[in-house]
Write a structure and sequence with these properties.
Helix content is 6%, strand content 67%. The protein contains 1 helix and 12 strands. The chain is elongated and about 60 Å long. The two termini are 35 Å apart. 26% of the residues are buried.
Length: 206
């Protein structure tokens, strides 16, 4: 959580409007506008200790809401993550993780009048998931216990393009900091997700 606290501090201090006449900070973290964000995720896992396995991307989706806090974008979304894993071509897994996530993004570099690079953090709370197993003997589907999984904290990098006034297009990459499972001592892993999203303003301040 120290990374999240650092981002909150940066956003709190850099996202304010300074009044040089009074020396006061104005509109302290005042939300502005409301946007719907939705898109597709391509997720994978990265083992902390490399294993004799092949991982590949698992598709999912994201949907939620976003608002502006002066210079920051803040949002609450449903995120599907996971991976496909193959062991020596004899056993295959498909893992799906469902998170309720919130993010804070700070535009860092303006490439053009319509395009900006974004840097921030995202933290997700595991709510459900499933693992399907396919091998030479049987196929099985298991539900995952939410109590066995950590919060999904990581860095979020992106590029945002203003298509028209009410519609933005965004590509982002999530790199997880936290180990996915709580009690895996040897074979734990972290989430990685590439996302493509459309953001539609349903209410905004002029």
């Amino acid at each position: 959580m120290k990374y999240l606290s650092l981002l909150l501090f940066i956003g709190f201090t850099s996202g304010q409007r300074y009044d040089p006449q009074t020396g006061n900070l104005l509109d302290l973290f005042k939300p502005s506008g409301l946007k719907i964000i939705s898109g597709i995720n391509f997720s994978n896992i990265k083992y902390i200790n490399p294993k004799d396995s092949i991982t590949s991307y698992q598709s999912g989706y994201n949907i939620g809401f976003e608002t502006n806090f002066n210079n920051l974008y803040g949002g609450l979304t449903f995120q599907q993550r996971g991976s496909k894993v193959e062991f020596e071509k004899t056993q295959k897994f498909e893992i799906k993780y469902n998170y309720i996530s919130f993010h804070l993004l700070l535009p860092t570099i303006k490439i053009s009048s319509n395009t900006s690079l974004l840097l921030g953090l995202q933290n997700g709370f595991f709510i459900s998931g499933e693992k399907s197993i396919e091998n030479n003997y049987e196929d099985a589907l298991y539900s995952l216990d939410a109590n066995s999984y950590n919060n999904d904290l990581g860095i979020l990098l992106g590029i945002n393009y203003i298509y028209v006034k009410r519609i933005n297009l965004r590509a982002s990459y999530f790199l997880g900091f936290e180990e996915v499972k709580k009690k895996e001592l040897k074979d734990n892993w972290r989430n990685n997700t590439l996302s493509f999203s459309v953001i539609i303003s349903i209410w905004y301040d002029n």
